[in-house]
Amino acid sequence: MTVRGPGASGGSATAWVVAGPPGAGKSTVARLLLARLRPVPALLDKDTMYGSFVAAILAAAGRPAGEREGLWYDQHVKVHEYAGMTATAREIRAHGCPVLLCGPFTQQIHDPARWRAWTADLGGGTVHLVWVRSDAATLRRRLTARGSGRDSAKLADFAGFTASMRLGTEPAAPHITVDNRTAAAALETQVAALVRTLARR
């Protein structure tokens, strides 16, 4: 099934946002979407784009190597990660190429005003939000299994981390949910249904 990117009006190409907490399975959902969408969107994954840069910033500032949440991180690192992703997506879309952004985007998706402002910064037009739902038990299992240093702070204060991710709260922005809790249906089935639904709109 094909979901076209650029609109007939010649505006910005379609943007896809795959959001959800770290460890929820966003990268897997993004990969499944990329396999089905035509034209294939350009993938902008936060960890791929900024992983080594963030590690260098944390080291230079004397911060814990696994820090990825909290007020200091939000003010000194995350704001620049998201600003860079947003500007890059807007520029790519302006040339007619659809984009898929992959990251938590927790503040953007749970605040309608912030979502409207952010989608405008992305270039307006069609922006599909795909929210990857998870729960605490599934997140703990997945974060522990992947053994990444960037998850150490999350696991050290797991209750605080899961509270900040607002796991049980649906996004305030218009969205489609992909449920990646342990007992949920296969991701491949959910993503295929999602693409079929949007193709009929």
Give your account of this protein's structure.
- Helix content is 50%, strand content 12%.
- It has 201 residues and is of the alpha/beta class.
- The model is unreliable at 1-10 (pLDDT under 50).
Order of helices and strands: EHEHHEHHEHHHEH
How much strand content do the residues show? 5-15%
Question: What's the count of strands?
Answer: 5
The description of the largest β-sheet is: 5 strands, parallel
Assign an overall shape.
globular
How large, in whole angstroms, is the Cα Rg? 17 Å
Q: Give me the secondary-structure category.
A: alpha/beta
Low-confidence residue ranges? 1-10
Mean pLDDT: 87
* Intertermini distance: 13 Å
How are the strands of the biggest sheet laid out side by side?
A: 2-3-1-4-5
Can you give the helix content as a percent range? 40-55%
Number of helices: 9
Task: Please describe the structure with a list of short key phrases separated by commas or semicolons.
201 residues, 9 helices, globular
Overview in brief:
The protein is of the alpha/beta class and 201 residues long. It contains 9 helices and 5 strands, in the order E-H-E-H-H-E-H-H-E-H-H-H-E-H.
Describe the SSE topology.
Elements: E1 15-19, H1 26-36, E2 42-45, H2 46-60, H3 71-94, E3 99-102, H4 106-109, H5 112-121, E4 127-133, H6 136-146, H7 152-156, H8 158-165, E5 176-179, H9 187-199
Parallel strand pairs: 1-3, 1-4, 2-3, 4-5
